[in-house]
Amino acid sequence: MTSGVPAGEDDEVVVVLDPEVLADGLADARWLLHDALLRGARRIVVDLARVDSLASPALATFLWAHRICRARGGGVVLRGADGRTSDMLRRTGLWRVLQVQGGRGRRGGVRGRGAPAS
């Protein structure tokens, strides 16, 4: 499921991931991101609030989209990441690359670009 302002008006697209989108792996999520990029999005907000956890290949997919958005002067924002995903971002160093907003779960999640929560 994708929602957001059409690129060109605000250049931001929100991609909502949920268990249904991820049921068959990452293919559907990749298509949603690809569609947003084809629409000209400079900034993609990936809403993870409905996702329990992500595997590392998902982070590689977000990084792929981020590189394209970055070339356009934007980036990828991860919103609502759980504690496990936040830990994976910290371990891989991707919390320094991807912007992360409003983590869920235990204290110590990653919040904001380059700023781990206390």
Automatic annotation (TrEMBL):
SUPFAM superfamilies: SpoIIaa-like
Gene3D superfamilies found in the cross-reference section: STAS domain
Residues of the STAS domain: 1-94
InterPro entries assigned: MlaB-like_STAS, STAS_dom, STAS_dom_sf
Name of the protein: Anti-anti-sigma factor
